Amino acid sequence: MALIPLMTFGRLIKIVDPKTLIADSKLVFVGKVQSVKASGIATRLSYPTWEGVLFPWLSVKIEVLVPFKGVRKGDIVRVMMLSLAKSEKAQFMYSPPEVLEPDRGDIFFLCLAPHQ
Questions:
Q1: pTM of the model as a whole
Q2: What is the reported pLDDT for 54?
Q3: Which of 16, 35, 82, 114 is the most exposed place for a label (fewest CB within 10 A)?
Q4: Domains (ranges, CATH) in the chain?
């Protein structure tokens, strides 16, 4: 019964239409993952059912396959991707955050905002 109120609200998200997302992005392209490495950086988040969980950032090199904005075919773009915490004490996490688990060879459509 305690989870019923939590399930009815869900997670707050902001939905941006594709035109606005692309217009507001500095780099837009389809790319293929060349390498994935741990960055050594983690973000501590408290989340329903988990307190103070560390979410590691991955350092990912991506080769541009199809450029749309701000890049050329063959360029290598380095990005950081938030990944889901893995621990020996795995706990249930209701509605975990959406994260990417990139592997070499994966293909992504990326819209990257300018660094602020």
A1: 0.74
A2: 77
A3: 114
A4: 15-112 (2.40.50)
